[in-house]
Write a structure and sequence with these properties.
With about 300 residues, the protein is of the alpha/beta class. The chain has helices spanning about 15-30, 45-55, 75-85, 85-90, 95-110, 125-135, 150-160, 190-195, 200-205, 220-230, 250-260, 275-280, 280-290, and strands spanning about 35, 60-70, 120-125, 140, 165, 180-185, 210-215, 235-240, 265, 295. It has 13 helices and ten strands. Strands 3-2-1-4-5-10-9-6-7-8 form a ten-stranded mixed β-sheet, sandwiched between helices. Helix 10 links the parallel strand 7 (about 210-215) and strand 8. The longest helix has 17 residues, at about 95-110.
Length: about 300
Protein backbone atom coordinates (compact mmCIF):
# COMPACT_ATOMS: atom_id res chain seq x y z
CA UNK A 1 0.00 0.00 0.00
CA UNK A 2 1.20 3.52 -0.72
CA UNK A 3 0.31 6.16 1.84
CA UNK A 4 2.04 9.17 0.34
CA UNK A 5 -0.22 12.24 0.25
CA UNK A 6 -1.92 13.46 -2.90
CA UNK A 7 0.22 15.73 -5.08
CA UNK A 8 -2.69 17.25 -6.95
CA UNK A 9 -2.60 14.85 -9.90
CA UNK A 10 -5.83 13.64 -11.44
CA UNK A 11 -6.66 10.41 -9.61
CA UNK A 12 -8.40 9.07 -12.70
CA UNK A 13 -4.98 8.72 -14.31
CA UNK A 14 -3.60 6.71 -11.39
CA UNK A 15 -3.76 2.93 -10.89
CA UNK A 16 -6.73 1.79 -8.84
CA UNK A 17 -4.44 0.38 -6.14
CA UNK A 18 -2.89 3.83 -5.60
CA UNK A 19 -6.31 5.50 -5.43
CA UNK A 20 -7.51 2.88 -2.95
CA UNK A 21 -4.42 3.32 -0.78
CA UNK A 22 -4.96 7.07 -0.64
CA UNK A 23 -8.58 6.63 0.38
CA UNK A 24 -7.57 4.19 3.13
CA UNK A 25 -4.98 6.66 4.36
CA UNK A 26 -7.50 9.49 4.34
CA UNK A 27 -9.85 7.46 6.54
CA UNK A 28 -6.99 6.52 8.85
CA UNK A 29 -5.65 9.97 9.56
CA UNK A 30 -9.11 11.31 10.50
CA UNK A 31 -9.91 8.56 13.00
CA UNK A 32 -10.34 9.34 16.70
CA UNK A 33 -8.48 6.21 17.79
CA UNK A 34 -5.80 4.40 15.84
CA UNK A 35 -4.32 0.99 16.53
CA UNK A 36 -0.72 1.38 15.41
CA UNK A 37 0.70 -2.04 14.60
CA UNK A 38 4.48 -2.14 14.15
CA UNK A 39 4.88 -5.62 15.65
CA UNK A 40 2.72 -8.65 14.75
CA UNK A 41 3.34 -10.19 18.19
CA UNK A 42 1.08 -7.70 19.94
CA UNK A 43 -1.15 -6.53 17.09
CA UNK A 44 -4.19 -8.48 18.33
CA UNK A 45 -4.25 -6.97 21.81
CA UNK A 46 -3.74 -3.47 20.38
CA UNK A 47 -6.74 -3.96 18.09
CA UNK A 48 -8.94 -5.19 20.95
CA UNK A 49 -8.08 -2.26 23.19
CA UNK A 50 -8.37 0.31 20.40
CA UNK A 51 -11.80 -1.02 19.47
CA UNK A 52 -13.00 -0.63 23.07
CA UNK A 53 -11.52 2.87 23.32
CA UNK A 54 -13.24 4.01 20.11
CA UNK A 55 -16.57 2.41 21.02
CA UNK A 56 -16.57 4.10 24.44
CA UNK A 57 -16.68 7.59 22.90
CA UNK A 58 -18.62 6.61 19.76
CA UNK A 59 -15.52 7.52 17.82
CA UNK A 60 -13.94 6.33 14.61
CA UNK A 61 -11.40 3.51 14.71
CA UNK A 62 -8.51 2.98 12.32
CA UNK A 63 -5.61 0.57 12.08
CA UNK A 64 -2.20 1.05 10.50
CA UNK A 65 1.07 -0.78 10.14
CA UNK A 66 4.30 1.21 10.25
CA UNK A 67 7.79 -0.11 9.68
CA UNK A 68 11.31 1.03 8.92
CA UNK A 69 12.41 0.02 5.42
CA UNK A 70 16.03 0.75 4.47
CA UNK A 71 15.19 0.70 0.77
CA UNK A 72 12.83 3.66 1.26
CA UNK A 73 14.88 5.58 3.82
CA UNK A 74 17.07 8.64 3.45
CA UNK A 75 19.48 8.11 6.33
CA UNK A 76 23.11 7.66 7.29
CA UNK A 77 24.70 4.46 5.95
CA UNK A 78 25.17 3.21 9.53
CA UNK A 79 21.43 3.48 10.21
CA UNK A 80 20.56 1.70 6.99
CA UNK A 81 23.06 -1.08 7.79
CA UNK A 82 21.52 -1.47 11.24
CA UNK A 83 18.05 -1.78 9.76
CA UNK A 84 19.20 -4.37 7.24
CA UNK A 85 20.74 -6.48 10.03
CA UNK A 86 17.27 -6.77 11.58
CA UNK A 87 16.14 -8.98 8.72
CA UNK A 88 17.98 -11.96 10.22
CA UNK A 89 15.97 -11.84 13.46
CA UNK A 90 12.72 -10.10 12.52
CA UNK A 91 12.32 -10.79 8.80
CA UNK A 92 12.25 -8.28 5.98
CA UNK A 93 9.96 -5.21 6.05
CA UNK A 94 7.61 -7.00 3.64
CA UNK A 95 7.56 -10.14 5.79
CA UNK A 96 6.80 -8.09 8.92
CA UNK A 97 3.94 -6.39 7.08
CA UNK A 98 2.53 -9.72 5.92
CA UNK A 99 2.50 -11.05 9.47
CA UNK A 100 0.65 -7.97 10.69
CA UNK A 101 -1.86 -8.33 7.84
CA UNK A 102 -2.44 -11.97 8.82
CA UNK A 103 -3.19 -11.02 12.44
CA UNK A 104 -5.40 -8.14 11.34
CA UNK A 105 -7.46 -10.22 8.93
CA UNK A 106 -7.93 -13.01 11.49
CA UNK A 107 -9.10 -10.45 14.07
CA UNK A 108 -11.35 -8.73 11.56
CA UNK A 109 -13.00 -11.97 10.41
CA UNK A 110 -13.94 -12.83 14.01
CA UNK A 111 -16.59 -10.08 14.12
CA UNK A 112 -18.86 -9.06 11.21
CA UNK A 113 -19.04 -5.56 12.68
CA UNK A 114 -15.41 -5.02 11.73
CA UNK A 115 -15.94 -5.64 8.02
CA UNK A 116 -15.51 -1.99 7.04
CA UNK A 117 -12.22 -1.52 8.89
CA UNK A 118 -9.18 -1.35 6.61
CA UNK A 119 -5.47 -1.57 7.34
CA UNK A 120 -3.25 1.28 6.23
CA UNK A 121 0.48 0.75 5.67
CA UNK A 122 3.46 3.08 5.75
CA UNK A 123 7.06 1.91 5.40
CA UNK A 124 10.30 3.81 5.00
CA UNK A 125 11.52 6.37 7.52
CA UNK A 126 9.71 5.36 10.71
CA UNK A 127 9.45 8.84 12.19
CA UNK A 128 7.81 10.12 9.01
CA UNK A 129 5.42 7.18 9.00
CA UNK A 130 4.39 7.75 12.62
CA UNK A 131 3.67 11.39 11.86
CA UNK A 132 1.79 10.51 8.68
CA UNK A 133 -0.46 7.97 10.35
CA UNK A 134 -1.05 9.41 13.83
CA UNK A 135 -0.66 13.18 13.80
CA UNK A 136 -4.41 13.92 13.86
CA UNK A 137 -5.57 11.06 16.12
CA UNK A 138 -6.78 11.76 19.65
CA UNK A 139 -5.52 8.42 20.98
CA UNK A 140 -2.94 5.94 19.69
CA UNK A 141 -2.91 2.35 20.94
CA UNK A 142 0.51 0.80 20.44
CA UNK A 143 3.07 -1.31 22.33
CA UNK A 144 6.13 0.08 24.05
CA UNK A 145 8.08 -3.19 23.81
CA UNK A 146 8.58 -5.68 21.01
CA UNK A 147 10.59 -5.37 17.83
CA UNK A 148 12.70 -2.33 16.96
CA UNK A 149 9.84 -0.67 15.06
CA UNK A 150 7.60 -0.91 18.13
CA UNK A 151 10.15 0.66 20.46
CA UNK A 152 11.06 3.44 18.02
CA UNK A 153 7.43 4.23 17.18
CA UNK A 154 6.55 4.46 20.86
CA UNK A 155 9.39 6.92 21.44
CA UNK A 156 8.33 9.05 18.45
CA UNK A 157 4.69 9.13 19.56
CA UNK A 158 5.52 10.35 23.05
CA UNK A 159 8.44 12.70 22.52
CA UNK A 160 8.04 13.97 18.94
CA UNK A 161 4.28 13.81 18.39
CA UNK A 162 3.32 14.28 22.08
CA UNK A 163 0.33 12.00 21.61
CA UNK A 164 -1.94 10.42 24.16
CA UNK A 165 -0.77 6.80 23.99
CA UNK A 166 -2.49 3.70 25.34
CA UNK A 167 -0.06 0.83 25.93
CA UNK A 168 -1.39 -2.74 26.18
CA UNK A 169 -0.34 -4.92 29.11
CA UNK A 170 2.23 -7.65 28.65
CA UNK A 171 -0.33 -10.33 29.43
CA UNK A 172 -4.00 -10.72 28.58
CA UNK A 173 -6.52 -7.95 28.12
CA UNK A 174 -9.77 -8.61 29.96
CA UNK A 175 -11.82 -5.85 28.24
CA UNK A 176 -13.88 -3.37 30.32
CA UNK A 177 -11.25 -0.71 29.57
CA UNK A 178 -13.06 2.14 31.33
CA UNK A 179 -14.73 0.26 34.16
CA UNK A 180 -12.35 1.83 36.68
CA UNK A 181 -9.64 4.29 35.63
CA UNK A 182 -6.98 5.09 38.22
CA UNK A 183 -5.02 8.30 37.64
CA UNK A 184 -1.56 8.58 39.13
CA UNK A 185 -1.43 12.25 40.11
CA UNK A 186 1.36 14.61 41.01
CA UNK A 187 1.12 18.35 40.25
CA UNK A 188 3.31 18.63 37.18
CA UNK A 189 2.60 19.53 33.58
CA UNK A 190 2.82 16.03 32.12
CA UNK A 191 0.18 14.66 34.49
CA UNK A 192 -2.10 17.61 33.82
CA UNK A 193 -1.67 17.29 30.05
CA UNK A 194 -2.49 13.57 30.24
CA UNK A 195 -5.76 14.18 32.09
CA UNK A 196 -6.80 16.95 29.71
CA UNK A 197 -6.01 14.83 26.65
CA UNK A 198 -7.91 11.85 28.11
CA UNK A 199 -10.96 13.88 29.12
CA UNK A 200 -13.28 12.24 26.56
CA UNK A 201 -12.53 8.81 27.98
CA UNK A 202 -12.60 9.90 31.61
CA UNK A 203 -16.02 11.48 31.06
CA UNK A 204 -17.54 8.13 30.07
CA UNK A 205 -15.62 5.94 32.52
CA UNK A 206 -17.78 4.07 35.00
CA UNK A 207 -15.46 5.02 37.84
CA UNK A 208 -12.46 7.34 38.18
CA UNK A 209 -10.04 7.47 41.10
CA UNK A 210 -7.26 10.04 41.34
CA UNK A 211 -4.41 8.60 43.38
CA UNK A 212 -2.01 10.92 45.21
CA UNK A 213 1.05 9.10 46.55
CA UNK A 214 3.10 10.76 49.31
CA UNK A 215 1.16 14.02 49.32
CA UNK A 216 2.76 17.11 50.83
CA UNK A 217 1.87 18.18 54.36
CA UNK A 218 -0.37 20.91 53.00
CA UNK A 219 -2.36 18.42 50.91
CA UNK A 220 -1.40 20.18 47.67
CA UNK A 221 -1.57 17.01 45.57
CA UNK A 222 -5.19 16.40 46.56
CA UNK A 223 -6.13 20.07 46.25
CA UNK A 224 -4.72 20.47 42.74
CA UNK A 225 -6.26 17.16 41.64
CA UNK A 226 -9.68 18.20 42.91
CA UNK A 227 -9.40 21.59 41.18
CA UNK A 228 -8.42 20.09 37.82
CA UNK A 229 -11.14 17.44 37.89
CA UNK A 230 -13.73 20.12 38.68
CA UNK A 231 -12.46 22.44 35.93
CA UNK A 232 -12.82 19.66 33.37
CA UNK A 233 -16.33 18.78 34.53
CA UNK A 234 -15.29 15.29 35.58
CA UNK A 235 -16.28 13.22 38.58
CA UNK A 236 -13.90 11.08 40.57
CA UNK A 237 -12.69 10.09 43.99
CA UNK A 238 -9.48 11.63 45.32
CA UNK A 239 -7.41 9.18 47.37
CA UNK A 240 -4.12 9.81 49.17
CA UNK A 241 -1.77 7.04 50.29
CA UNK A 242 1.78 6.72 51.58
CA UNK A 243 4.23 4.50 49.77
CA UNK A 244 5.58 3.24 53.11
CA UNK A 245 9.11 2.73 51.84
CA UNK A 246 8.07 1.12 48.56
CA UNK A 247 8.91 2.68 45.20
CA UNK A 248 6.10 5.02 44.13
CA UNK A 249 5.38 2.97 41.01
CA UNK A 250 5.00 -0.17 43.08
CA UNK A 251 2.59 1.62 45.41
CA UNK A 252 0.54 2.76 42.41
CA UNK A 253 0.27 -0.75 41.00
CA UNK A 254 -0.55 -2.25 44.37
CA UNK A 255 -3.36 0.25 44.81
CA UNK A 256 -4.63 -0.30 41.27
CA UNK A 257 -4.76 -4.02 41.90
CA UNK A 258 -6.53 -3.63 45.23
CA UNK A 259 -9.38 -1.57 43.74
CA UNK A 260 -9.77 -3.58 40.54
CA UNK A 261 -8.53 -0.88 38.20
CA UNK A 262 -8.96 -1.62 34.49
CA UNK A 263 -6.83 1.25 33.14
CA UNK A 264 -4.07 3.44 34.53
CA UNK A 265 -3.54 7.04 33.39
CA UNK A 266 -0.24 8.83 34.05
CA UNK A 267 1.87 11.71 32.88
CA UNK A 268 4.84 9.97 31.28
CA UNK A 269 8.60 10.34 31.78
CA UNK A 270 8.77 13.48 33.90
CA UNK A 271 12.57 13.31 33.95
CA UNK A 272 13.05 12.41 30.28
CA UNK A 273 13.21 9.09 28.51
CA UNK A 274 16.93 8.38 28.65
CA UNK A 275 17.32 9.46 32.28
CA UNK A 276 14.49 7.14 33.27
CA UNK A 277 16.14 4.30 31.35
CA UNK A 278 19.25 4.83 33.46
CA UNK A 279 17.53 5.34 36.80
CA UNK A 280 14.52 3.04 36.44
CA UNK A 281 12.03 5.73 37.35
CA UNK A 282 8.25 5.56 37.75
CA UNK A 283 7.12 5.40 34.11
CA UNK A 284 9.58 2.70 33.16
CA UNK A 285 8.59 0.57 36.16
CA UNK A 286 4.89 0.93 35.40
CA UNK A 287 5.37 -0.07 31.77
CA UNK A 288 7.45 -3.08 32.77
CA UNK A 289 5.15 -4.39 35.50
CA UNK A 290 1.59 -3.23 34.80
CA UNK A 291 -0.96 -5.94 34.05
CA UNK A 292 -3.54 -3.46 32.82
CA UNK A 293 -3.53 -0.94 29.94
CA UNK A 294 -1.52 2.22 30.70
CA UNK A 295 -2.59 5.51 29.13
CA UNK A 296 0.04 8.24 29.11
CA UNK A 297 1.18 11.51 27.65
CA UNK A 298 4.50 13.36 27.80
Amino acid sequence: MNTSPSNGRDTKALPSAVISARRIHELTVHADVIALLPDPANARICLDIAEDAARAINGRLAAAHVGADPERMVAAPEEIDLQMLRDMDEGSPQQRLERVISVFEFWKDANPGRSDLLLDDCRGDLGRCVTSECHESALVVTPCYGNMDARDAFHDLLFNEHKLVLVPPAGRYSSHLLQHVVIGWKPHEHAQAAIIAARRWLAVAERVTVLCVNDKADGSYQLTARELIAQLGLKGDIVAIRSEGRPVAEAILDFAGSVGATCLLIGAFKHGYFLELLLGRVTRYLLSHARLPVMMKH
